[in-house]
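Input (structure):
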C-alpha cells in the first residue's frame, strides 16, 4: 500500500450530519458514477464522526459531487494532509484495544464462539490469557489476540485500592507495636 497520493489531487473534508457519514459516502459515490464526476476516492473512517473525505483534482469537482446531497453541511476549506487521515484508515492491532477484565468472544480455534474474560494481555507476543465464562470451572487459556473480538469493556483492575488497604493494615500493626512498646 503506498502512503502518497497522486500528483495534482487533494483531499477535501466534507462536513456531514453525525451518524450519516456512511450514507453520505454512498450517495456521493453513486452520484459520481452516474454523472461521471472525476472523484478519485470517497473515504468515511469509522473513528471520525461528522466528516467524509474526498480525493479530487480541485474544489470545483467537489462542489459538483456534493451539490444537493442530503445530510451534507458543507466542506472545510483548506488542505487535509494524506498522513492525517492514514491513521484512521490503517487497522489498529487488536492487542492494543483489549484490556484486563474486558469481555471477549473467541472467533477462531477450538473454543470458537465462546465468551471469555481477559485476565492478562501480552502486547509483546500479541497474545491474551482468558478465562472461559461458559466453562463449569475456571479454565485459563492463552490465544493469539487476532482470535478474539471485543464484546464489552470491563472495569479497570483495582490495584490502588488493594495497596491502600494493605498500607492501612500495616500502619495499624505498627501502631499496635508502638503502643506495646510504650506500655
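Output (sequence):
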Amino acid at each position: 500500500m503506498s502512503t502518497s497520493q497522486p500528483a495534482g489531487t487533494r483531499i477535501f473534508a466534507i462536513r456531514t450530519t453525525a451518524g450519516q457519514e456512511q450514507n453520505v459516502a454512498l450517495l456521493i459515490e453513486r452520484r459520481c458514477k452516474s454523472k461521471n464526476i472525476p472523484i478519485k476516492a470517497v473515504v468515511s473512517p469509522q473513528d471520525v464522526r461528522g466528516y467524509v473525505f474526498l480525493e479530487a483534482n480541485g474544489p470545483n469537482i467537489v462542489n459538483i459531487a456534493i451539490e444537493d446531497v442530503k445530510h451534507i453541511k458543507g466542506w472545510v476549506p483548506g488542505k487535509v494532509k494524506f498522513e492525517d487521515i492514514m491513521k484512521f484508515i490503517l487497522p489498529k492491532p487488536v492487542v492494543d484495544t483489549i484490556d484486563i477484565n474486558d469481555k471477549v468472544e473467541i472467533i477462531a480455534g477450538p473454543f470458537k464462539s465462546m465468551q471469555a474474560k481477559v485476565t492478562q494481555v501480552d502486547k509483546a507476543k500479541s497474545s491474551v490469557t482468558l478465562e472461559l465464562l461458559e466453562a463449569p470451572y475456571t479454565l485459563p487459556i492463552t490465544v493469539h489476540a487476532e482470535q478474539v473480538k471485543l464484546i464489552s469493556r470491563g472495569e479497570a483492575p483495582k490495584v490502588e485500592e488493594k495497596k491502600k488497604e494493605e498500607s492501612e493494615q500495616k500502619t495499624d500493626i505498627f501502631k499496635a507495636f508502638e503502643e506495646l512498646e510504650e506500655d
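Notes: Residues 159-182 form the longest helix (24 residues). The chain has a mean pLDDT of 83.
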